[in-house]
Amino acid sequence: MGSVSILLVRPLVAALGAAGPEAEPGAQPGLDAFFRATGLTAQLLADDDARISAPQHAAAWAEALRLAGDRALPLRVAAALPAGAFGVVEHVCRAAPTLGEALRRWVRYLNLLDDTVAVGLEVEEDRALLRVERESEAPAPAAHELRWALAARYARELPAEPVRPLAVEFAHPAPDDPAPFAARLEAPVHFGADATQLVLPRAALAARLAPADPAPLAVLARAADELARQAAVDPPMTQQVKRALPEALRSDDAQVESVAKQLGVAVRSLQRRLKDEATSFQAAREEVRRALAQRYLDEGLATAEISFLLGFSEPAAFLRAFKRWTGQTPVERRAQRSAAAAPA
Predict the structure, then answer these.
(1) What are residue 114's DSSP bridge partners?
(2) Are 70 and 184 in contact (CB under 8 A)?
């Protein structure tokens, strides 16, 4: 089903009047209701690398709209969003030389923010279409409204000459009052359309953006490419548990109760969600231990040190586990790596 970056949820919390990702439950009734309805936590919101499931993302939008009492909330979020809110993906796009290249980069790296949907950029005669090509299995229509509102905003603000859409189309039904959408997007807006897309003049793709320093751009592009290569294939809760485990192992506190507390969820909830993702806490811990063991061994750590860092009761227990994982002893693996690295 895919997952969504927590960076896409933070603006909703801000729009509800929270103090930000550091806000604690109990600080505001609206935020408490948001957490209860979505299963999200303040700890999760504070984790830049956290990802949530598509149903959680849809629930977050539904609850934010309910609490705000404002169907035009996506427009308000788009107008207030500060620069840099979407991290390296946004920076790479802003550093593009033209609007067309910025859109192509956004399409390329969108999966780092949301891999539950797929968006493409198509050129047809005198039009350029930014179109949703694959919808999420748990759609959040307001998320598309935010995307197109942001695209329209940046098309006006970033080029030397403002670019305005020819049309904005949504496949979902119209809200009770669609007037704010046309006013804020500065374009004809159609709901119940055949596709969800933003239509631009083809010539707008050549619109120049502010000159970019090529050195930082290269660094940003490499960072985005690396993130894309490392994009986790694990479902959201599995990812969260695996990120929490290395520190828990070093602290000799890698038990399900401790990790659940660190993530701000109940033990039963954590176990249930891992089961829904076809794994378990024990399996996730075993996988993390195996990956860390190989890394620590390659970095030259002694087996006794690795045993301690991985939370084993004694080195002999680690040696048995390593043999089970790899079919080799640590000494045999080191010898194999050394032989492979030796000059011919």
Answers:
(1) 4
(2) no
CA gap 204, 187 in Å, rounded: 15
pTM of the model: 0.71
- For the segment 181-217, what is each residue's pLDDT rounded down to a tens digit? 999 999 999 999 999 999 999 999 999 997 655 544 5
> Residue 124 phi/psi, 5° resolution?
-130, 105
pLDDT tens column, 97-120 = 999 999 999 998 888 889 899 999
Class of domain 236-341: mainly alpha
pLDDT in tens, 134-156: 999 999 999 999 999 999 999 99
Q: Where are the domains of the chain?
A: 70-227, 236-341
User: Cα torsion for 309, 312, 317, 321, to the nearest 10°?
Assistant: -70
Amino acid identity of 313?
S
Give the residue among 109, 78, 103, 89 at the shortest CA–CA distance from 200. 103
Q: Which of 4-8, 192-196, 214-218, 340-344 has the lowest mean pLDDT?
A: 214-218
- Residues in CB range of 326: below 8 A, 6 or more apart: 290, 294, 333
For residue 132, the cross-strand partners are 119
